[in-house]
Amino acid sequence: DKIPATLIPGDGIGPEITQSVVDILDALGSPFAWDSQLAGMAAMADGGDPLPLATIESIRRTGLALKGPLTTPVGGGFKSINVTLRKEFELFANLRPARTLIPGGRFENIDIVLVRENLEGFYAAMEHYMPLGHDAKAIAMSTGFNTRAECRRIVTYAFEYAVKNNRRKVTVVHKANILKALTGLFLEEGRAIAKEYEGRVEMNERIVDACAMQLVMDPWQFDVIVTTNLFGDILSDQIAGLVGGLGMAPGANIGTSGAIFEAVHGSAPDIAGKNVANPTAMLLSTALMLQHVGRHDLAARLDKAIDHTLTVAKVRTRDLGGEAGTREFTDAIRHHLA
Ligand code: NAI
Ligand code: MG
């Protein structure tokens, strides 16, 4: 019996890279029965609602989704659907593993797993403007929050991940020197949880700005990183840059009763519809989804075919210096499925 799962093609390059996944999974013997649903700009254009009830109900039913990137208007417009979905299904952990797949780049042998708190911090911020004189928007206010319970839950998730995946170290990244309450609480819980894992998993601490520098100077010192929402968002794009760019970085949003898998990157409107998008991040997210449902066999075959295509056959998309289009690259992976 197939596993019911929601498929959201998304905006921009979303439909192209989602098609890659569907084609390759078909060739692999997909364990999923897709329920295709709309969200984001595509849903706006269809029915005027960026997050239709049918989409929410589908994910509630399946508890499992693969999602293409969604465009979020900057400034006004509607609120980020990504943030809304994470909240709606309480997907508290955002897992973003990054591994060097192509040798000979600026950085070799990178293998870092970033665990980002996904529900709180400045992404749950209450924002508003305050007037001064004639300027209605003279002052911009933002109030973020972190709860002790959520700090505990995300740090515990990172340490448990380390134990289960034979990782030796968890780095807690914060800015407790300045945001003494907001990220001080996170650090406090990080230290407390680390004690429970003493002797099994090493713990260290980094202030986020210094961490950003060290990620470039000596990324090999990092193993698992756990951090708050905003810092995690920024550092995960930086880490993607260490392994070849946003086209190579997969992600998973995980909760206790559901999971949504998606690439780290956005809808890339600059290259949408041109058959040049790199579907690797979306495919690696699919591999994470296969692992999540216990199909480690299929995940391994998919990972292997991606690896072979990139490093042995050397078929690569433009962002990796190659010439293959999205479709040609997809065909090559399909051809290399063992
Ligand atoms: P972006 O990640 O879409 O693109 C940044 C740069 O990376 C662009 O030059 C793009 O062409 C390139 N790029 C991204 N993915 C690529 C791929 N698979 N292959 C080749 N090149 C790739 O970030 P940007 O431009 O800041 O945001 C565009 C839109 O995406 C915004 O509306 C933003 O809100 C949304 N977004 C959505 C996310 C999601 O759905 N999870 C995550 C991040 C951004
Ligand atoms: Mg981001």
UniProtKB/TrEMBL annotation:
Residue ranges annotated for the Isopropylmalate dehydrogenase-like domain, each copy included: 2-333
DNA-binding among keywords: no
Keywords annotated in UniProt: Oxidoreductase
Pfam families: Iso_dh (PF00180)
SUPFAM superfamilies in UniProt: Isocitrate/Isopropylmalate dehydrogenase-like
Annotated TM spans: none
InterPro entries: IsoCit/isopropylmalate_DH_CS, IsoPropMal-DH-like_dom
PANTHER family attached to this UniProt entry: DECARBOXYLATING DEHYDROGENASES-ISOCITRATE, ISOPROPYLMALATE, TARTRATE (PTHR11835), ISOCITRATE DEHYDROGENASE [NAD] SUBUNIT ALPHA, MITOCHONDRIAL (PTHR11835:SF34)
Family affiliation: Belongs to the isocitrate and isopropylmalate dehydrogenases family.
Listed name of the protein: Isocitrate/isopropylmalate family dehydrogenase
